[in-house]
Amino acid sequence: MPVHRDTRRKNRPWVIDISYVDRRTGKKVRYFRNAKLQTADGARAEERQLLVVLTEKGFIPTAKDFVPEEKAEKKKEMTLAEAWVLYEQGAGQQLKPSSLYGYKKVIEAHLLPRFGSWPLSKIDKAALLELDLDLLRDGVSVATRNNATMPLRSVVWNAIELGHHNVKPDFPPLHRVKSKVFEVLTIVQIVMLLAKAPEHVRTAIALAAYAGLRLSEVIGIRWADVNLDTDTLFVKRAITHGVVVTPKSGHQRAIPIAPALKDILLAARPERFSPFDPVAASRKGTVWTDSGLRHAFQKALKKAELPHSRFHDLRHFFVPQVFAGGAGAPTVQKLAGHLHLSVTQRYAHAPEELMRQAVQVFGRRSA
Q1: 199 Cβ partners below 8 Å, 6+ apart?
Q2: Which of 24, 63, 122, 321 sits between 20 and 30 A of 246, alpha carbons compared?
Q3: Rounded CA separation 312/33 (Å)
Q4: Cα 290 to chain center, whole Å?
Q5: Is 33 part of any domain?
Q6: What's the pTM value of the predicted model, to 2 decimals?
Q7: How many domains does the chain have?
């Protein structure tokens, strides 16, 4: 298989394994490398990109195909701004819209203002360490500082793969990000929030808190996806920045409708509606935008006099609640739409009340 996991190696990395005949020499060649992005989707996207290069050039460039810098023809070197345009119009189209949008925000906020006119070879370890230090002085978190340089790696390697750059980058390693402890809303706070939220916002909040839908999935769900006779919700699509995509896991899923959610859906369903109308619509009855729904959620929090929270934290409320209800990890994984069980377990932070109850056992044993 061109893309597979190498079971002979300890970490079982995703590898790209392509055999072909080099058009330059007529000899059989095997391209065997670890995928740059260690996920199935990322490896397959990289494979597709390499096959395009193979079709155009008749071979897949590797490090030995690059001429040492001192022997290369003197020509104008590609700048970061040019390399970003190349990436955005090519390899970037393989990403999910949300990922490309995130890359674009980082590139435009941190990298282009500083390095846009720089030749790629000048953006080295020293330059990136200096950028990281400036972000640290500004109080930027470790995770955000990592995010500020990750798109750069993809952009530079894309330029190398396409033959527009011939200097292998020397980037500093990413910082290790410590696990977070999430302070989620309690069930009482969720009820208060739903009571204070306007009806059009209440439906969106309930879908996230009682069904675990992501913001993009809340925006994407339609009345045709809701069966109130069998109490089942079908998550078939997500809408990110106006673009319709598959849910983040790449799979559709069916979620039983909780009684509290059913009451809200029944109240929100209009007498006359099209199956293709959004279930959670804006005040005007139109599809929410990402920023519009986030802003409406913050207004509802303020009205309910609750602490600041993110819309995504409603999923952090959902997962521990279903764990506390007795569901096993595989069940919760399916409900939440996680591709990997390890993600489910990371979300499964036990509520404080359950932890307090758990440690009471020591008092009983001592007595």
Answers
A1: 267, 268
A2: 321
A3: 36
A4: 15
A5: no
A6: 0.62
A7: 2
